[in-house]
Structures are given as C-alpha cells and as structure tokens.
Protein 1
Amino acid sequence: ELTIQEKVYVRIETKVPRTFLYFYELIRALSDFFSMAVGALCLPERVTVEGSFQPEVLKDGAVIYPKADVFFWNAYEGDKRAPHPMDMLFRFDDVKDHFTNMLSNWISKSTRLRPARMLYISSLYWPKAFVESKFLSLVQAVEAFHRQFMHDKYIEQENYDALVLPHLLAVVPKDLPSDFREAIKGRLRYL
C-alpha cells in the first residue's frame, strides 16, 4: 500500500498590522475555497503568526513575542481519503491562467459569502448529520447567497430600517402575547 501525504504552506503578509481575527477569517475563507475546489475538506492544522517587532515586556512582566504557533483541532470525522481528480470542481491546470484573479475575487467577497459558505461546507462535510439537516443547510446556504448577491430588493436595507420598519413595528397590536408580538417584530426586520 502506498500512501502520499501532502502539506501545503501559504504565506499571508499585510502592509498594515492586523488582528488575529482578521487572519483567522482569511484562513477560513481560503480553507473553504480549497475545500470546494478539490471536493474534500481542507483544514489548517497549524498556523504560525509572526510580527515584525522585537519581543516586548509588559508592565506585569509578561513578554509578547513576535512569533507564535497556533494549532487547530479538527473535529471532522468523515472520509479523510485524498480526493480523486474526477471529484474536483477544478484542477489547478484548468484555472492556472486565472487562479490569482479567482482567489482575489473569492477573498474580496469572503465576508459577504461567509453565511452561505458555512452552511454549504457544513452540509457537505458533516457525515453524521441527518439528510434532512443537510438539505435544510443547503437551502439556507442558497437563501443566504441570494440575500447577499441578488439585488431584487424594493428598497435598500438602511432605508428600510430607518424609514419603513419603525412604522410597521408601531402598528403591531400591543395586546398580543409577548412571544407572538416578538415573533412578528423579528419577521418584519427581514422583509
């Protein structure tokens, strides 16, 4: 039996200092991109964070080092076999001339795509989920994508929140049970 294991290294640099959360979200976006591309869950195991400063000693004596390793725990229990090239959405050779542009577009839209990405990835790569749960996740992913990228709104959300929603909330009958009243208000926020 022959086993091949591949490690991929990605270096991310910024021109201005960023928080760890910024890099974490970027890593999640890249992970989702490669997971969809190859048809298998791609997760980081280890991330090395490196700053461009000298170790700093704080007032309480704690030391901030410019380099730290962050290890990720993988809760995925599904099929961990290497993806077959026929199962991949695309191979690098198919997109090599456009890869930089594809990845750049993906990253630039990653925040808007996040809800749809999370639902889609969880529906595909959580093997113990019931088929109904997977179906609902996929439908919610489509709805989340549609809400972010399809511009079939009658009014922009900011204008709706400022000009329309207060009037609708004001006419919800006050004598309704409070849980029913809150449910109506919740639905009105997302018309």
Protein 2
Amino acid sequence: TTLLQAQCVQPGPLQAQRCFLDMVLFLVATLLALACGPLLYAMTRAAPGYRRVFDTLVLLSIAALLLFEIIPHALHDGGAWGVVWLVAGFALPTLLERAFRPIREQTHWIALTIALAGLAIHALADGAILANIDNATQELGASIALHSLPIGLAVCWLLIPLIGWRRSTLVIVGIGAATLVGFLLTPNLKL
C-alpha cells in the first residue's frame, strides 16, 4: 500500500488519499467489467436473440477498438513502420494459416497460446497504468475499465466453444490476476 500511495504525489495528504482511492476504484471496476464477460455470455446462452446482440456487440467493439484506437495510434506513433506492421498484422496470420493448413489443429492451438500470452502482457500493462492514475489521467483509468468488458466477452465468445466454461473462466481469472500483478508491482510511470 505504501508503494502505491507513494505514487500518488499530490500536494497534500487528502489529495494523495483520494488519488489512491481512485486507483483502487479503477482497478476494481476493471476486474468487475472483466468478470461480466462470462456472466453476460451465460445470460445470453439461453436466449438466442440476446446472444446475437452480444455477438454483434463483441464484433463491433473489436472493430471500433481497431479502427479508432489501435490503427490510428500505430500509424501516428509508428509512421511508415506502423503501416508495415499493420499490413503484417493482417496478412501474416492468413498466410501462415494457409501455409500450415495440413497441421491446422496444432497451429490453431499455438496461435491461441500466443494470443493469450499477449493478452496477459496487455493485462499487466493495464494494471501498471491503473497504478499510476491521478487527477489528470482519470479518463485513461475509465477507458481501461470500460475496455475490459469487451475483452471478457471476446474471451468467452472465442474460448467457451473450444475449451469449455471451466478453462475459459480460468483464462478470465488469469487476465484479472495479471492486471492485479501489474497494479501491485508497477514502477512509478509518467503518464
């Protein structure tokens, strides 16, 4: 707690305490949003109409995240290399899938493992950012909390049909644990 409180360098003890509470609030909101993925998936399981709505929500959320967040930042921050990596990110999976079609099942599980490892690293980064939220970066904390809902939904939507409820729930718990580890072990970042 003192490490986290030390990161809330504010002009006074009351402001530092509020900063710490904001960080914890955004962490709890993030974990709750992530946990809503399995709950929403379960609620829609028996109601095909709702299921279609949530399937559409997941697809639209992922598309919006790509179109309005990831791609513009990659192009802005990366310049010409951003374009190269963007094209590679879209083309390579398709090319690799075609090249390894004879061993499709094994490559599918390898790709899934790599994606889950990337998601764990992403969750560590989310936790690190949440541990550094202050008055000037509260919108970032809210964004992290909000984007955890489509992450939870996407994980359930993609994994439950493949590996079942129990293992998919363990993946969600693992993502939450990685977020918590990032939150607790982060250095003082300049956001």
